[in-house]
Amino acid sequence: MKVVLLPGDGIGPEIAASARRALAELAPDLALEEHPFGAAAIRAAGNPLPDETLAACLAADAVLKGPIGDPEFDAADVRPEQGLLRLRTELGVYANLRPARADGIDLVIVRELVGGLYYGARGVREDGTVFDTCEYHPAQVERVARRAFELARARSGRLTSIDKANVLETSRMWRRVVRELAADYPDVAVEDMLVDNAAMQLATAPERFDVVVTENMFGDILSDLAAAVTGGLGLAPSASLSDAGPGLFEPVHGSAPDIAGRGIANPAAMLRSTALLLEHGFGRGDEAAALEQAVDAALAATPTPDLGGSATTVEFTDAVLGALTGPAAARTL
Ligand code: NAD
Ligand code: IPM
Ligand code: MN
């Protein structure tokens, strides 16, 4: 069983080191292979997703990815983010699960990940007009909505589908497909909500949501908001899944260039992504739960500066490892 680890840029290598330690402790039988990706790969090979890295990801059982992105390439023709978009389509990971939990809040955003504005035609017309287009095929909507219905069925039986059907053609089709699918899931109560209202309600009443499904760009924005109301970006993990083949597990947050290299990044989102990898990638729910509990214990006892504490990335990781190997962990494992 092979895990490909892509450390990435900025704080990526710092939090990837935490994940490496957690996996070595919890799942020493998993082979861990590291490959260059993102800005680091552009510098080394002129390509954010070198052929060797892509081949290794496709041949892996799961991919664990640190954040990518570097201000140095913001205005360049070849950018780290292009490698990430390509990796997601090459892996076919259309369903991006972004859970957010805190006191009284327990929701999962199911974000469509390989369509919409991110992948539509874009360019510049002769008159200087610049355009990006939002395109969806009904089949793309149906497969991600089905995932969300299944997840809702396994959880509380409530699903909120978020769109902009009062304006967008793609949203009206999205809403129609979700409604048609609802007939297959009589046990799931589904509601439609416009995205502007959804943003307001996520900020003011996040506890009312359970499973949320939405298109790519809305999901990107709303998942940062959901992270913010449940403790911050440093805590938010994600799992991107296809129908078969390796999943891609990565934090919701970016490379945090403002704090990179200082050893103070919060590795909780990366460690929670590692727990999602153990659960969804390998069916190792017990180890995933043990890691989740150890991260919760470290968050309570040894918080990093983004949470008002003073622990370094390494000190936080020490606390997680301590909770994993301590006497309490022996009981839960
Ligand atoms: P960001 O998520 O990197 O940072 C936003 C704020 O949150 C910053 O103040 C940062 O310090 C803080 N933060 C984020 N993660 C943290 C952590 N683990 N611990 C403590 N603080 C943390 O967003 P940005 O600054 O807009 O983007 C920076 C770069 O990251 C851009 O190049 C962007 O394209 C890229 N990005 C990559 C991914 C990804 O790889 N999936 C996701 C988002 C952004
Ligand atoms: C995320 C990020 C990416 C996205 C960027 C870096 C392309 O913001 O994973 O949320 O927009 O999907
Ligand atoms: Mn994002």
In short:
The chain has twelve helices and twelve strands.
The strand order across the widest sheet is 2-1-3-12-11-4-5-10-8-9
Considering the protein shown, what is the CATH homologous superfamily of the largest domain? Isopropylmalate Dehydrogenase
> What radius of gyration results from the CA coordinates?
20 Å
Characterize the overall form.
globular
Bound molecules: nicotinamide-adenine-dinucleotide, 3-isopropylmalic acid, manganese (II) ion
Straight-line distance between termini: 21 Å
Structural class comes to alpha/beta
- Which residues sit in consecutive blocks of at least 5 with pLDDT less than 50? none
**Do you know the CATH topology of the largest domain?**
Isopropylmalate Dehydrogenase
Question: How many DSSP helices?
Answer: 12
- CATH class categorisation of the largest domain: Alpha Beta
Helical amount: 40-55%
Strand content of the residues, in percent? 15-25%
Oligomer: single chain
Please describe the biggest sheet, giving its number of strands, its sense, and whether it closes into a barrel.
10 strands, mixed
H/E series: EHEHHEHEEEEHEHEHEHEEHHHH
How many domains, as an integer?
Answer: 2
Q: What is the overall pLDDT average?
A: 97
Instruction: Report the CATH architecture of the largest domain.
Output: 3-Layer(aba) Sandwich
